[in-house]
Structure formats: structure tokens, C-alpha cells
Amino acid sequence: MNHIPSLEDIQTVHERIKSFIHQTPVLTSQSINELIGCEIYFKCENFQKIGAFKARGGMNAVLSLSKEEQEKGITTHSSGNHAQAIALAAKTVGTKAFIVMPTNAPIIKKNGVKALDGEIIECEPTLEARESTVQKVIERTGATFVHPFNNYDVIAGQATATIELITEIPNLQVVMAPVGGGGLLSGTALATHYLLPNAEIIAGEPEGAADAILSFKSGKIEKAPFIKTIADGLMTNLGDKTLEIIRMYVKDIITVSDEEIISAMRLIWERLKIVIEPSSAVPFAALLKQKERFEGKKVGIILTGGNVDLGKLPF
């Protein structure tokens, strides 16, 4: 796909990937609602295949390739969930996945890639190293590169989570998602804009990887002043495709500290009794931080994933 996905595009994608993914549940908690003073509907992508929403975009991008492209294999760079998504999609179509992962990627996510028969190529934990290593893989194998977020097929795939959420809860006033590279946020923004044009789309972003809020304000790709956050899935800059969509349709980006992320994550573990990773808790932390703004409203939140290293829990 070489254009911003339309509603029709996203619905076609949903049909294409439906049999390869889970339709995840939407959970609510009366005690959380009473605590905050609004109605929150959590779209639980931690129950998705590979434990994260990225199964959607990865599956769509790989299914959209020609047979010849699929046969040469698929490559990407990712610290975790997109890596597993591409490994799963490649295995589904019967081809090889060559996954470039930084040396400091969480072990649980590396193990997930290996379990799906993905070949891991390690690199230094910098974007430059990721990109140059992928380039070498392409030269060596002829594999097709699927960008983790700056790719319209991936964005359309991620948008399907919000299509399901709004189909189930049709009168939301606010829809929230975290932002790292912006694939999920731009997909969420498109689906919400098409189906609920009057709803607000609000993102949460870690203070320790706060590039999106700068890019959102300036209109060009900015770098975060510093990178240090527990939300390991969100340490990525926006891409030109995601930034364009986010600036068109997102109302606001709220930044949150690691302390706020951890307490939001803990509240979800305690009240909803589900496992989510720190990146997942970021939009909920943003809501908690500015709760008066959401009072009395119906809010949908995408809980992005549950791939957390249980030996390193922050509480």
C-alpha cells in the first residue's frame, strides 16, 4: 500500500488477517472506573498472538507481499514485539525470518522469536546499527524488509485493533494508545477518525523517550532529549508516514514518568488481574495524570502487550 489507508483499506485488511489473529477481549473494571470517575474500556492486545498488537501489522505486511517476495524471506529490526510478529507471519506463509535485534533486547522477546523459528542477528543498540545490519541481511539473502511502523501495510494492520474496539463499544468519546514509532497510534487515529469523527485521540508517551511530542509540535522528526525508560517498546522515533497521520488526527500527547508508568501498570495487574508490559500502561498513566480532563467520559485504551520479563518486575 502506497497511500494513507482509507476505512475501506483497513476493513479489507481486517478480513485478510482475521483468521490469523485473535479478536481480543475488551475488559472493564468498576473499581478503576470509580477511582477515576470515567468509564474505561481496555482493548486487551496482551491476549493477542505473540502477546502484542504487532501480530496484526506484521501479518498484514507479510500477507500483502507477492509469492516471490515471500519466498526470499522477510527481514526487520526490532527490540521485541515486531520481531515476534514478523517471525510469526513468516512461519505462517512458510518462509524464513531474519530478525535484527539489539543486544539489550529483553530475553523473553528473543526467546519468542526463536520459538517461531526466526533467525536472530544481533547488533549494537543504536538505530544506525539496526539499519546497517538489516542492509547486510538484504544483500546476503534478498529478503524483503518490513519496517516496524513506517509502513502503510503495518499501520493498516494495527488499525484493526481499534476497528474491533469501536465495533464492540460504539460510543467512545476518547481513544488512547501509547506512542513509540507511531504505527499503532497512527492506525488508531485513522480508525477512530473514520468511525468516530467526534472522538478525541490522545497518546501517552514516556518522558524518557519523548520525541513524538516534540515532532508533533514542530512538524518534523525530532529526537528525544534523552532515552531512559522502563517502557522498552517505545524507545523509537516517529517515521515520516506516522508523523503525518498523527499530526492530522491526534488531539494531544501526554508524557509520563517511569514512576507514573509503574503505578499504572501495577493498578492494572491488581484490578484487572492481567499481565501487561510497561509500554502498555503508558496511555493509562497519561489518563491517571490528567484524570479531571476525562471525568464522566467513555474512554477506550489499547493495552498493547504483555511480554514482560517476570524476573524483573518493577514492583
TrEMBL record:
This is L-threo-3-hydroxyaspartate ammonia-lyase. Keywords: Lyase, Pyridoxal phosphate. It comes from Emticicia aquatica. Residues 19-305 form the Tryptophan synthase beta chain-like PALP domain. PANTHER family: SERINE / THREONINE RACEMASE FAMILY MEMBER (PTHR43050), SERINE RACEMASE (PTHR43050:SF1). Its EC number is 4.3.1.16. The gene is thadh. Its cofactor is pyridoxal 5'-phosphate. One of its GO terms (molecular function) is threo-3-hydroxyaspartate ammonia-lyase activity. Pfam families: PALP. It is an enzyme of class 4 (lyase). CDD domains: Thr-dehyd.
